Amino acid sequence: METLESELTCPICLELFEDPLLLPCAHSLCFNCAHRILVSHCSSNKPLESISAFQCPTCRYVITLNHRGLEGLKRNVTLQNIIHRFQKASVSGPNSPVRAHTATMSLEHRISCQFCEQDPPREAVKTCVTCEVSYCDRCLRATHPNKKPFTSHRLVEPVHDAHMRGLTCLEHENEKVNMYCIVDDQLICALCKLVGRHREHQVSSLSERFDKLKQTLENNLTNLVKRNSELENQMAKLIQICQQVEVNTAMHEAKLVEECDELVEIIRQRKQIIAVKIKESKVMKLRKLAQQMANCRQCLERSRALITQAEHSLKENDHARFLQTARNVAERVAMATASSQVLIPDVNLNEAFDNFALDFSREKKILEGLDYLTAPSPPSIRDELCTASHDTITVHWTSEDEFSVTSYELQYTIYTGQTNFISLYNSVDSWMIVPNIKQNHYTVHGLQSGTRYVFFVKAINQAGSRNSDPARLKTNSQPFKLDPKTAHKKLRLSNDCLTMEKDESSLKKSHTPERFSSTGSYGAAGSVFMDSGCHYWEVLLGASTWYAVGVAYKSAPKNEWSGKNSSSWVFSRCNNNFMVRHNGKEMLVEASHQLRRLGVLLDYDNNSLSFYDAMNSQHLHTFEVSFLLPVAPTFMIWNKSVMILSGLPVPDFVDS
Asked: Which of 223, 261, 354, 525 is 20 to 30 A off residue 183, Cα-Cα?
C-alpha cells in the first residue's frame, strides 16, 4: 500500500492527486498544482492567460498550452478512480494507514501545534517546511491563506522528530538528503536539484558545508567564550568598584560627621567665649552706671539742702534779718541755677554695648553654602599674555576658582599637526610635565628654536583636577648677527653687526681662516651654527640687485661664491635674474623685481631650506637637504647694502 501511495502522490504538493491532469509526457499533475506553476511563472504586469507553456516537474518536458490553457489538457480519469478506490480501502481496511497512524499516535507523543495560544495546544495537522512550524487546522487556515506568498509554502504531514526530519528530504519523502542548497540555506536531495524548485540554485556537498559551518561555529564559539571571559572580568571589576564605592561612601560619611562635629564644637567654644565677653561688658556697664547714679545722688542732696535753706530764709519777715541772712543764700541759689550744667553730672543713659555687636550673617552664609569640595574649574591659557624667546616660552593662565586651587601642573609637547588633542593628550610618553606650580604663570626653558608646542594647564585640589583647553605657542628663531671675523675686507658692518654694505675703501682687516677672502666673494657669515630646530630670518634687500643669501657648512670654501660647492645652498639675484644655486648648479626662479624682503626658513630636523617673498607671503623655492653638519647663515653682496632681521617667530603663512 505504501508503494502504491507513493505512485499516486503529486510531485508538487506531495499529496494524493486531486483532479489530476494527464500531461503529454504521460505524467500527471494536480490541477491546482499546475495552476500554481503558471502563477509562479507569471510576472506582476501580465495576465495568467499569457503563459503558453511550462515544464513537467518530473521529466522537464515542455508542455505547450492552447488558447484554453489548463482546461485544454485531458483529465486523468483513470488515475482519479484509482485514487478514489485507494482512499476507500485505506479507510476501511484493517491494516489501513489511517488506523496505523492512529495506533502509532496513541503510542507516541502527539505533535502539538506550535502556534496555538491555548493551553494545552491543539494537535498539529500539517508542518510547514518553509516556516519550519507545525500548525493545527485552525492556525493553519489563519496563517496560510490561499494567497501569495503562502501558496508557495510546502506543507507536509506533521513531523515529530526534527532530527529525523533532517535525514530525509522534506519535499521528496523517500529520498535521503545528500546536498545543501546555499540559496535557501536548506538540506535537499538529488531530486530537488534535478526537478524541484532548487534546480537553478547553487548547491554544495554536505561534507563541504559541514566543514565550513563547523569551522564558523567553532570560531564564533571561541569568540563567544572570549567575550564571556571579558564580560566576567568586567563584572569582577564592576563588583570591585561597587565594593570600593561602599567603602568610600562610608569613609566620606564618617568624615562628614567628624567635620560637622568639629564645626559644632568650634561654635560651642566660641559661644562660651562670647557669653563671657557679654557678661564682662555687662559688669563694666553696670559699674559705670552705678558711679553715675552716686554722682547724681550726691548732687541731688546738695541741691535739696540749698532749697531748704532758701525756703527757710523766705519765711523771715523782718526786713533787716532777711537782708542779713538771705543775701548769702540768694547768691548760692543764683550760682546753682546759673551753673546747673556743672552741678548736674553728665549721665550716660545709653543701654547698648558700644564696643561690640552680634552679627553672624556672614558666617551663616558660609554655613548655608557648606558642601563637599569639587574639582576646580578648568583654567584658561591667556595667549595674549604669553611671551617667547628662541628657547623659552612663558605661559600665563587664569582660573575662576583660584582660591580653591592647591597647585597647577603644566604639560607640553611638540605640536605635530595632530588635531585630535584628546588622542594626543592620552599619549603620555610624549609629554613633559611641570608639577606643583603655585603661581598662574611659568617659564619653560630649553625649548627648540622656531618650534610650535602644545600646552595644557591642569588645576588641582583635593577633590580632583581639570585641564585647560590646549594652547599652541611657538618659540622664536635663533637670534644671530653678522660675524665680523668672517666679513670680507671690502664689506663694512654697522648697526650692531646687522647691516652689511659694499665698501671699496679697502679697510685693513686682519686675515682669519673664517674670512671671505678672494676677489668677488664679498660675503659674511652669521654668528651662530644651527644643528637642530626650526629657524626663520629675513633680509631687507633695499635697493640691492646683486646678492646671495643661504646657509653653509663651516668647511665651505671662503674663496668662491656661495653655492658653487657642495657645502652651501643659496638664493641669488644678479640684476634681473633670480636663481637658486648649490654645488655649482643653478636653477632660475620666478620672483618679483620688487622683492625687498627675503624670508629664509631653515627646518634642520625636517631636512629643508626654504625661501619666501616675505612681503607677499609667497613661496619661492625649497631645497630638500639631509644636513650632515651644523650650518650657519651666509650672505654675499655686490652692490648697495642689506640688513638682517633674526630671532623672529615663524610666520603663519610659512606654518601653513
From this structure: 223
